[in-house]
TrEMBL record:
Entry keyword DNA-binding: no
CDD domains according to UniProt: PgpA
Designated name of the protein: Phosphatidylglycerophosphatase A
Transmembrane segments: 42-60, 80-104
Keyword set, alphabetical order: Membrane, Transmembrane, Transmembrane helix
GO MF annotation terms: phosphatidylglycerophosphatase activity
Every YutG/PgpA domain range: 8-145
Keyword Disulfide bond in annotation: no
GO biological process: phosphatidylglycerol biosynthetic process
Length: 153
């Protein structure tokens, strides 16, 4: 099970990207996954996002113990969970997916309160995943706010 958890936590090879693995995972895995999830009825989409959250908590917890690092950069399943929170319920258009990716990475890197508190105080897989989900909530709000203005351009 350790190999499965590590492969999931890394999203296969994406977590081994030599530069910005979180951003690579958001763009390469997150955008197509978000588009696919958006094709589902909203209730099913919420269930998929919840399942990714719980899977991320489990896989990231195992991966951080295997790698002996409390928040290894190569663990990127949490980015997928956070990005899906960013775009759930929004139209799956090119602008919304790209703007959502921008805002998600901004809030995930910046870690405004309470994202920073979750990052600092929670540990294990829940800690690795929770701050990304919180950043996703901020990014969702920012993306939803900006989209009507983008549609007028």
């Amino acid at each position: 099970m350790d190999a499965v958890a590590l492969a999931l936590a890394r999203l296969g090879f994406l977590g081994r990207s030599p530069a910005a693995p979180g951003t690579v995972a958001t763009v390469v895995a997150g955008i197509p996954a978000a588009w696919a999830v958006a094709q589902l009825p909203y209730g099913w989409a919420c269930l998929v996002v919840a399942a990714v959250f719980f899977l991320s908590c489990w896989a990231c917890d195992r991966a951080q113990r295997i790698l002996e690092n409390p928040d290894p950069g190569q663990v990127v399943l949490d980015e997928l969970a956070g990005y899906l929170v960013t775009v759930i319920g929004l139209p799956a258009t090119g602008p919304s997916l790209l703007v959502g990716a921008f805002f998600f990475r901004l809030f995930d890197i910046w870690k405004p309160w309470p994202v920073s508190v979750l990052d600092r105080e929670l540990h294990g897989g829940l800690g690795i995943t929770a701050d990304d989900v919180a950043a996703g909530l901020y990014a969702h709000a920012a993306t939803a706010f900006l989209l009507p203005f983008l549609e007028k351009l």
